[in-house]
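Quarterly update from the structural biology core.
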Amino acid sequence: MTILLAACGARTSLGGAADGGDAGVEASAPACALSDMSTWRTERFRDQGDYERAAVAIADAPWVALKPRGGDVILVELGVDPQQGIVFRNRIAIAGASAYPVALDVDERRFVLVTTTGINWNGDLELWRVDRTDGNVQHASVGGPSPNPESTIESAVGIAGDDIVLGYARAAENQGTVELRDDHLAILQSIPVPDVSFTAARADPGAVDLYLGADARLHVQGGAVTSLPIDPSWQVIGGQAGFRVEMGDQLRLRQGQDTWAGAWPDTQISPPAVVRTDGARAAFSLETELSGVVGWQRAPGELDWLRVEPAPDAPGFGAALLPVIESGRLGFFYLGLEMPHPEQPLRYYGLACP
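Predicted structure, tokenized:
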């Protein structure tokens, strides 16, 4: 299977970034090569803002929930414009949502968001539904009182047709809960599980696979929750549209019988992997010990990594959000960690082959 990352052509210069930020361009060879990303032009965009926490939709769409410092949560559809840099193509504020986003999904009807009241993924857990037609907001508390309110909460959420599937646990309690809720957030099923780690992956437009650590998978579709087998030697840490990212002695991207594998990008990684697709192509972002990376299909069977490289306008470390994969552009959005300052501005780093 041959993967073409972009079409080559004439190069164009970039303008300034959106919202008063800046953009930098590094010159490279006069022509780009499909399989040699060293010939692609480097792009670094910086946007204004200070976002304390973020959550990314599991759907194949560039929606994120951002918590501005001192403000309510906003839902943002991200984009990269060749002239403006980072742009918010759509923006929705959730009045009264002053907590911190930890999990998100979206479909054509609604956004579903999980938040914690504690900035360190702790405190109380809440579930939110935002209607995309009339803007109506519903929210409900999740779980009962906890003996460990300061304990870290692990969670994942996904929209499966008319229903919502939610997995959550406090890491210190060694057990978790999977809930199936209706479109009004009422609980339909509550299933205790012996796991505290959850990864939600889109199985198809009406279904969600919820992975419980490395041991189990629950398939949610048509109002039913079904336990399915998994490969115990490979832990699934993300997925989209038939693609799965799996972790073992290597990291691999798999679609059916096609597999792209590569060495770990760092000695420490933090799932989940966020997958985005463009036809037969896929890329995924992943957090390492100090920064994010993007895994991409370099050649048949081969996985390679795009890493942030230090620059004055885009420090080479931060919290990865999601990859950008489109014709002539590969990169990712992330929150830059501004040391020693506390600001975390939204950033984009990538390569272009126009």
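The chain has two domains: 1-55+233-354, 99-230.
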